[in-house]
Amino acid sequence: MAKNLIGIDLGGTTTKFAFVDQEGNILAKWRIPTDISNAGSNIVPNIVKSIGDQMRKEDYTANDFFGIGMGTPGAVDRKKGTVVGAYNLGWKIVQPVGATISANLQLPIMIDNDANSAALGEYWKGAGDKAKDVVFVTLGTGVGGGVVANGHLVHGINNGAGEIGHITVQPGGYLCTCGKRGCLEQYASATGVVRLAKDLAKEFTGKSRIQELLDSDEGLTSKMVFYLADNGDILANRIVDRVCSYLGLALSDIGNILNPENIIIGGGVSNAGNTLLQPTTRYFQENAFPSVRDSTKLKLAQLGNDAGVIGAASLALQFRNH
Question: Which NCBIfam families does the record match to this protein (predicted)?
Answer without folding.
Answer: ROK_glcA_fam (TIGR00744)
